[in-house]
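Quick illustration for those who missed Monday's session on complexes.
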Amino acid sequence: MMPLKSLKHLNTFSITAHAVDVISVDSVNILIEAFRNTKNLKLPFIFLGSGSNVLFLEDFLGVVLLNQIKGLSYTESETDWHLHVGAGENWHELVCYTLQHNILGLENLALIPGSVGAAPIQNIGAYGVEFDQICEYVDLLDPCTADCQRLSRKDCRFGYRDSIFKHYYKTCFVIAVGIKLKKCWVPKLDYGDLKKLDPFKVTAKEIFDFVCAIRRNKLPNPLLIGNAGSFFKNPQVDRDTAALMIKNYPDLVYYPQADGTVKLAAGWLIDQCHLKGYTIGGAAVHDRQALVLINKNHASSQDILDLARHVYQKVAFTFSVYLEPEVRFISAEGEINPMAVLS
Ligand SMILES: Cc1cc2nc3c(=O)[nH]c(=O)nc-3n(C[C@H](O)[C@H](O)[C@H](O)COP(=O)(O)OP(=O)(O)OC[C@H]3O[C@@H](n4cnc5c(N)ncnc54)[C@H](O)[C@@H]3O)c2cc1C
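Prediction with flavin-adenine dinucleotide bound:
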């Protein structure tokens, strides 16, 4: 079957690619039915939210199941708010909704593109807060068996841009998430420029505005310039490697972790290789944020891939540090390990 359905508007990189079919899924029943049809046709499938963390390497010879399961409700206990949110809701709109209803705690995660259902997949995080910290549960559907199950926060095994969903449950669809926010709100101001705010006076709305302003200034808007946010994860190295690097590069930007490892700022490493603005074909390293690769001028996926490989090799050669993509790579048959095509 020919892949004729365009995916260009379904990925924030704005890469030209096609799929055999794209099915909008707005209920569990439609998901189960769409999955059965896909299986009967013996076609591969992928789940997609807003496409803000994927790179289509070529046409996808299968069916895209597009998450549009909506719904939002909340209850309260004496100490907490408990939100139940359909996976197809937009993350940033959820952040705005909670603020408007005086339910506080999501403000640091403002303006992260994408769907609510994708938030647990890579444990989204920004400005010192990760989804892990606010997750109560994740509801999953196995479309093969039509079984639903609820995973507790602990079951999700969240890590840095990682969760159980990247390793198991790969054929399961996140249909809803539960979020728990404390009524007794404490501002989270440990990260970067947020430290400038006064913890005794600041409001959640001010943090929201501050985060939005920084992000608008620093990150290219995917509606104007195709991109998928941070292309690479911040690499984590052991204490000894970090100590040696700090000695050799006193300006190194790094974040010590609770487990003794040290996270290095991938953007700093790329910047030190003088790659800001570097271009291959229509793809470029963003000139203000080295961690973001952009579709500057009708880039093909090959342009993005060649640029990513160049960045990977330069950083490896300069620092002996091996970057790993945060973005998910989709080939003709489905998702593939990005290291298989990068290194
Ligand atoms: C400008 C920009 C800034 C960004 N900033 C940040 C940031 O600060 N922090 C951060 O963590 N991320 C950031 N990202 C990355 C992105 O926003 C997140 O990864 C987001 O959660 C992706 O949501 P999505 O709906 O677009 O997922 P998609 O890109 O559609 O999918 C991502 C992966 O999740 C899977 N998936 C999606 N929905 C489901 C589902 N319902 N069930 C099962 N699997 C599913 C897909 O198969 C795919 O493998 C940024 C991206 C952009 C473009």
